[in-house]
Specification:
By secondary structure, the chain is mainly alpha-helical. It has five helices and no strands.
Length: about 130
């Protein structure tokens, strides 16, 4: 059962949090380090460490659905992968079929998105 989360509930500061989490996750993966401790450290500074496991799961499933390593942007802005992730987190719908061709992968990613959306709405309103 899925609960519809209003896209407005994922405020801009939460979108920035998702981008920061994704970039932290990518950096840990690139260095072959454990991702959850790095995410936990980042998110603890922002008073929402409960998101570490959700982001880790979401990003693993998202990368599988992309069928390529998750690309991050830089100071110049967001990558296409980051923009799509932000759109998916802000939307209330299901994963588009073109993203995850396998039904099981799409279902798993959809569940991870729903869980992360819920946790983002429970995060402190003044996260940094």
């Amino acid at each position: 059962m899925h609960v519809a989360i209003d896209g407005a509930a994922v405020a801009p500061d939460r979108a920035e949090l998702a981008t920061a989490g994704a970039r932290c996750w990518r950096a840990a993966r690139d260095k072959r380090e454990a991702t959850q401790p790095r995410l936990h450290a980042l998110l603890s500074e922002r008073r929402c460490p409960m998101l570490a496991a959700a982001f880790d799961s979401l990003l693993n499933l998202y990368e599988q659905a992309l069928d390529h390593p998750f690309a991050v942007g830089g100071e110049g802005g967001l990558s296409e992968d980051e923009r799509l992730l932000a759109n998916l987190l802000g939307a209330a719908g299901r994963v588009p079929g073109c993203l995850a061709a396998k039904r099981g992968a799409a279902t798993a990613l959809d569940c991870a998105l729903c869980s992360t959306r819920i946790l983002l709405t429970l995060a402190p309103k003044d996260i940094q």
